[in-house]
Amino acid sequence: MRRPSPRRAVAEAQEALRGPQPQQPGRLGSVALPTPPQGAAMELTAAADGFLQGLEEPATAFDLLRELTATGEFTTREILDAAVTLAVQGACLALAGAARQRDPSTAAEYCLSATGALNLIVTVVGIDAADIT
Description:
Mean pLDDT: 83
Low-confidence stretches: none
Helix content: over 70%
Distance between the termini: 47 Å
Strand content: under 5%
Number of strands: 2
Largest sheet: 2 strands, antiparallel
């Protein structure tokens, strides 16, 4: 039997102390459910993240991209644009982390992780959406 994580155990204890909460429309417990536009944005982000992770094996990544666009929910361009946005955010977070470090070697590690994200940006920007379909 697996033990719950400490974070989950604390959340369950807090919920037990508060007692049952009345359900409100659009809420699941104490967490608001995403609106349809938020849900679509989350799905697009998940699709873009899956594509970026698959880029280690380009053929697999392009197959995934074709599958994601086959439903018509997203276009190739939308997924590629979201992938660039994710990679830019990752690079910015890594560089911000580097700026907060006092130890130069730790800062250098953050910078190296940012270069990986910057490489992803260059790779994805260079993909022609018309060549994938």
